[in-house]
Fold:
Amino acid sequence: MKKAQNEMKLIFPSLSENERLARVAVGGFISTKNPRLDELNELKTAVSEAVTNCIVHAYRDTVGLIELTAKLTEDGVYIKIRDRGCGIEDVKKAMEPLFTTLPDEERSGLGFSVMESFTDSVTVKSKKGSGTTVVMMKKLRSRI
Amino acid sequence: MAVYITDSGDGILTAKITGEIDHHSARWLRADIDTAIQDRSPNRLILDFSGVSFMDSSGVGLVMGRYKNMKERGGSVELKNMPDYIEKVMTLAGMDRLLGGR
Structure:
C-alpha cells in the first residue's frame, strides 16, 4: 500500500444505530478526494455491510467494540474493520453468495458479495473465538 | 426513514419508502409494510424506492421477505423507481427481475 496522506480511527459499540455512523464517517473522510457519487455510494455500502456483520454475527448476543481504520493514499482508500467477537468458522463458506446462518431474520447472505463487488479487494482474517478483521481497498478516480 | 402507504382501492398497495435502508431501519420498515399487507390484503404490492437515499443488502432481505409474504397470499411484488446503484445491489441477488416502471 502507498503512503497514507490522511488517516482516521473510529471505535464504537456494536449498536445497530452505529451502522449509519460508520458509513457517514467514511463518506466524510473520503470527501477531500472529491470522489464520484457512485464510488462514494459503493464504499458506504461496503462499510455498512462489514459493520452490520460485526453487529449481527460477531457480537450476536452481546455488545462489543468495533474498530474502523481508514487511510487515504495517492490513488484510493484503505478500510479496516475489526471486531473481537465470535469469529467465523469457515471464511470461504461465509463468503459464498447467498450463504447465511440467519435466513429467518431476512439476512440475504449478500454482505461479502456486496463488499467484493463494490471495492477492488476484500481480505478477511478470522479466528474462532477471537474475532474477525476485514480489509477493503478501493481506487478513487477524482472528478477533477 | 419512513414508509408511506397508499391503497388505490383496486388491490394495489403502494409502499413509498423514504430515507436509508440498513439493518437498523429494515426492522421498522418490515413491520409497517407487513401490517399494511395484513390490513388491506392486496393482490399486488408496489415498493417505490424514489425516496431512498441509501440501501445495503438489508434492503434485499426486506424485498425478499415481502416477496415471500405476498407469494404466500397469491399476490405479487413490483419494485419501482430504483436508483442505479441500489439496482446494482438488487441485481447481485437476482431480484432485478421484479423491477417494473422507473
The first helix of chain B runs from residue 23 to 40.
